[in-house]
């Protein structure tokens, strides 16, 4: 009604019908409600914390933790602080996330491409994989890997021996521990140089290809630089890196590096589960590239592999990357299920043991959530940048 | 629709509401029910069977409090709590009393809780497989040890191995069931928890006879019920519930003979059972409070025996949990 | 007419060409096999590899689950047969897995609640069913009250109160999922509308909430609901132990639902809004009568897949001590009187089949709806 009246004369009518006034009113009400809720929660919490003598500050951060963690990538003993325990948990979370992302990408892309394979049985097996895995809760899969696959492995004394000094038993996988002697720094340097030089060669080769159309054997040269060069240095210096073989002594193997079954189960469960979603993303991405593209590539004489690698996948990546990023984030967030199978990740160590020993529930939960939020936001931000660079430039 | 949803949520809120402001005794009386924090499942101390009937020493303690306060040991609601949230449940007023094999320590007393009399003196020990030929905890160097996460057990374990300059792998899980299953499947060489728990856990293994409890006790674990600070009357009721049960045992008053004992000439017995004096009134209870406890739940000896002692599958010896005049530590102040 | 003699020219062919061999089969089973299984050497190798794999896995799975399985008997029968699943164990534990510790003589209440819920959901999802708006009304408003009264009890009408700590098993799993959908959908719609709102404060509040919840793991939300909620609210509001994860679940899935609904709102052609505004309809009637019915219909597949995620995520409530279905399977698996090597695989197989049947069924429904919708949009 107000609309018609404004047409007739510039009278704004009742203030109740003014959309601006209404919008302002709604927002003020919402802000008031939000502030009231937060203030209520704050005052209740501080009263409850004071009543229950729950520690309020962050002084626990520097107190001695007193408990042990089995998998520590950074130095940690029971005399370290709770703050240190936080870092151990965070590093363990990041470790499983990074390894999981690599593994799940490999499985996911393989299965995704296999779903579109002209080979009927390959496509069907890939489909069954996807339909079975993504419709079963991740937690159930983790428990299955941990309890039904890894725990029935033999005891240390009956370990399964794998050539190369590797042992497999219900305490995990024990591999030889590299010992870095004098001169091993040079080998590392050679490796670093090899990697840098490979990138340099790749750059030079692609510039040359654009100019002359001649291709250089990039893969071969890179392999020689990255693997061959350090090996050469290694032998020239008289094998400075030795491997300490694990030896069965007492309860378990001494020496060697141990990969705990908890890590293996978590890694397997997370990658296999996430891969079933990535496979569908990859399939959708490939199908989004018009048939004309691959037909044109065939007409130009590219074979099936080249078509996939040079024409289809680069275009499909634009469609694949945004949902792929959210799958990577899902995997990282899902790594918090570690607590169910005893892997010492951030949630298990910090939001579990530390929270329990210190009683500082509010601070610990706030820090834990903040860590995941930061990981999410940073990843989204990086991916948005990447996306902008790779977006289709319309001409 | 949303308003309605909010209303429904509010309704549900109220359904689970507790009123911590009023004195706990009045709250319990008003509610007609005691809310007791119990273990999720620990045979002998607090464990529900498949139809929800609870048994155990800690559970019977709550029944004794209910018998003293409400005259009816069945008016208890048990809330199963895991190690992680047991204290928050007590602090937030969700339970009136926490009777869940919890160790009395100074830092816990500093978290606004009061631990009552110790109803079970315990200590941490280890269980291992017999075929490993280990006879002492000192031989566990290099072993993998399964432990429950976030408990004093975890801290004692670390201390013990450090003082004895031994190495170990701690494999920590968040609940007792997972710890036990991990040990049984061979993930660990040893399992550690309070020794009473070890006996109970051992019975849950497929072949209990293949496993043994090592002789070392590496810590003091006085297990006791706990209440919130700031309600002295309630704390007294919880304390004296235990002492009444001890006094009952000391004076030979059992659930079977308590009615005959009412006619006893012994002034101690007469005061205990409320035939003489106004002991119960002082606590804000009826004078038959101790009579109700002993009649309907039993004295300490009976409760111990049927839950963890010779009358139970656990067969734990009385040891230091015997009465003071029989070489143990259980000692009740006089009721007078 | 020299043209007539053209037939005598020597370069003209006189005989018919011999018939070419028939083209390779392009239809029929044999051709299909050649094209789809043995089109190249690599393909043939893969075919044999996967065929061997399938021939190894499928029969052994069938053997384990059916042929050699123990269907009845006790723990000893199962320990004697290590080649087959121990269904006798599931049969023995079935009631526990189904209801948890819910009192036996009151279990009919659970059955009634679930049957009513199933009927309503079927009514709601079966397109072409009459009066689906009535079903929606019943499901989103009447049903939660009915379920609350039936499951928890109301002494007024003679139903004894059953404490929530006794609830468990399939009951909890279904309950958490239904609570999740009943509260998260309306909440998600509000959040999505808020996120697209012109009002900066409303928008900021909704965006912050959605991005915060989507950025943290579900487990931490559950922890928060369990440990912190009692601290946040006044004492007389301390929520029940089962209610806390329910609130956490509803808020968590609301954030995801909001993003699904937002996609539907964005896909709505501008003309729909403009048309409604031209008719002088206010904001809420416009949303209720014009925009949301269309937007929500287009995102039914998204809603269903969010719901599948929610259904799978209900397994995580075990972390705060709620005995959901998977947790009861875990507990049953640890029962020493049933101990044996086939118990764990049987338990997991049973749990996996349960979740798979539900999730796969829902995803099929969502795919069918998607196809139907895309057909509708084409004309």
Automatic annotation (TrEMBL), chain A:
Residues 90-383 form the ABC transmembrane type-1 domain. It comes from the Bacteria. One of its GO terms (cellular component) is ATP-binding cassette (ABC) transporter complex. Pfam families: BPD_transp_1 (PF00528). The chain crosses the membrane at residues 24-42, 85-114, 186-205, 217-243, 263-282, 337-355, 361-386. Its main location: membrane. The keyword Transmembrane helix applies. PROSITE patterns: ABC_TM1. It is a multi-pass membrane protein. Keywords: Amino-acid transport, Cell membrane, Membrane, Transmembrane, Transmembrane helix, Transport. One of its GO terms (biological process) is amino acid transport. Belongs to the binding-protein-dependent transport system permease family. HisMQ subfamily. PANTHER family: AMINO-ACID ABC TRANSPORTER PERMEASE PROTEIN YHDX-RELATED (PTHR30614:SF37), MEMBRANE COMPONENT OF AMINO ACID ABC TRANSPORTER (PTHR30614). This is Amino acid ABC transporter permease. It comes from Lichenifustis flavocetrariae.
From TrEMBL, chain B:
It comes from the Bacteria. Residues 1-22 form the signal peptide. It holds the Pfam family SBP_bac_3. GO terms for biological process: amino acid transport. InterPro entries: Bact_solute-bind_prot3 (IPR051455), SBP_3_CS (IPR018313), Solute-binding_3/MltF_N (IPR001638). CDD domains: PBP2_BztA. Gene3D superfamilies: Periplasmic binding protein-like II. PROSITE patterns: SBP_BACTERIAL_3. Residues 33-261 form the Solute-binding protein family 3/N-terminal domain. SMART domains: PBPb (SM00062). Keywords: Signal, Transport. SUPFAM superfamilies: Periplasmic binding protein-like II (SSF53850). PANTHER family: AMINO ACID ABC TRANSPORTER PERMEASE, AMINO-ACID ABC TRANSPORTER-BINDING PROTEIN YHDW-RELATED. Belongs to the bacterial solute-binding protein 3 family. This is Amino acid ABC transporter substrate-binding protein. The lineage of its organism: Bacteria, Pseudomonadati, Pseudomonadota, Alphaproteobacteria, Hyphomicrobiales.
UniProtKB/TrEMBL annotation, chain C:
SUPFAM superfamilies: MetI-like. GO terms for biological process: amino acid transport. GO terms for cellular component: ATP-binding cassette (ABC) transporter complex. GO terms for molecular function: transmembrane transporter activity. It is found in: Cell inner membrane; Cell membrane. The keyword DNA damage does not apply. This is Amino acid ABC transporter permease.
